[in-house]
Design a protein that fits this description.
It is found in: Membrane. InterPro entries: CDP-alcohol_PTase-I, CDP-OH_P_trans, CDP-OH_PTrfase_TM_dom, CDP_ALCOHOL_P_TRANSF_CS, Phosphatidylglycerol_P_synth, RuvA_2-like, UvrC_RNase_H_dom, UvrC_RNase_H_dom_sf. This is cardiolipin synthase (CMP-forming). Strands 1-2-3 form a three-stranded antiparallel β-sheet, with no helix packed on it. The C terminus is likely disordered. The chain folds into three domains: 67 residues, no CATH class; 49 residues, 5' to 3' exonuclease, C-terminal subdomain (DNA polymerase, domain 1); 148 residues. Helix 7 packs antiparallel against helix 8 and helix 7 runs antiparallel to helix 10. By secondary structure, the chain is mostly helical.
């Protein structure tokens, strides 16, 4: 039995291929206009296309099954029905809870579960995660010496606050609201606000700032505990964020940004410290 191998030539340019014939790996170079070379090129290209297409199909199939198989209540029959109704995983990810619930065998509860699982790391949630990842950078910028630190710290904080608005807007606009996002968004807000308040108290060290900071942080802890308590009783929606809460968050973040940027000691708004002995 003889084996024939084909290798691409210099620069992978068609027509410069080299043939190797077993058993002695004899090198054969055919002319560029050879019909035999053209036939071998077509066979090689078709083999590559078949292998690559098959690999992509298998990989896509594994991705689809791995995602849907991890969702409780979604068995093989429901997976097939979802893919048949929507045409693919990407279409299933873009579907709303109402559209998912229209699929035979998918209840509203299961539709919400599928939606949350497929949209856990969508764009709104990634913006919320970015707000959390900005906290260490915010702290490092706060301890940077020089006047630049005020502008740098405020810029990072304002950018983080803008992501708080954008993630909610995009979630509604793109219909990508999820339970994970509803849980993560207030957590990110509380983290960055509490960190900012702690740093401000350390900087100014006066009752004018310390007392409001203690009240705000205590309030955040109480609200979080209340949400957890109501969730245990199945009434988590009873503590949903109201419009007045959004106004509070906006005014709170705006005040923190101003306090970061302005040296209040220079404006005689807080008692000046006497550092001389």
């Amino acid at each position: 039995m003889y084996l024939l191998g084909i290798a691409k030539g210099a620069g992978r340019k068609p027509g410069l291929e080299k043939l190797f014939l077993s058993p002695n790996a004899q090198e054969i170079i055919l002319p560029e206009d050879s019909n035999a070379l053209h036939l071998l090129q077509r066979v090689r290209d078709e083999a590559h296309r078949f292998a690559i297409t098959g690999h992509r199909q298998q990989r896509a199939k594994r991705q689809i099954h791995s995602v849907l198989e991890n969702i409780e209540g979604v068995g093989a029959a429901r997976r097939r029905e979802l893919l048949r109704q929507f045409g693919g995983l990407q279409e299933v990810q873009c579907a709303t809870v109402e559209e998912l619930a229209k699929v035979p065998g998918i209840s509203v509860v299961l539709a919400k579960r599928i939606y949350d699982a497929l949209n856990r790391f969508n764009l709104p949630n990634l913006l919320t995660l970015l707000r959390i990842f900005l906290i260490p950078i915010f702290i490092l910028a706060y301890y940077t010496s020089g006047a630049l630190s005020y502008w740098l710290t405020t810029s990072i904080f304002v950018f983080a606050c803008l992501t708080d608005w954008f993630d909610g807007y995009l979630a509604r606009k793109l219909r990508q609201e999820s339970r994970f996002g509803a849980f993560l968004d207030p957590v990110a807000d509380k983290l960055i606000v509490v960190v900012a308040l702690i740093l401000l108290v350390q900087s100014y060290g006066t009752a004018i700032l310390s007392i409001p900071a203690v009240i705000i942080i205590s309030r955040e802890i109480v609200i979080s505990a209340l949400r957890e308590l109501m969730a245990q009783y199945g009434r988590g929606t009873k503590v949903a964020v109201a419009y007045v809460g959004k106004i509070k968050t906006f005014m709170q973040m705006s005040a923190i940004a101003v306090l970061q940027l302005v040296k209040l000691e220079d404006n005689n708004l807080v008692p000046k410290k006497n550092y001389t002995k």
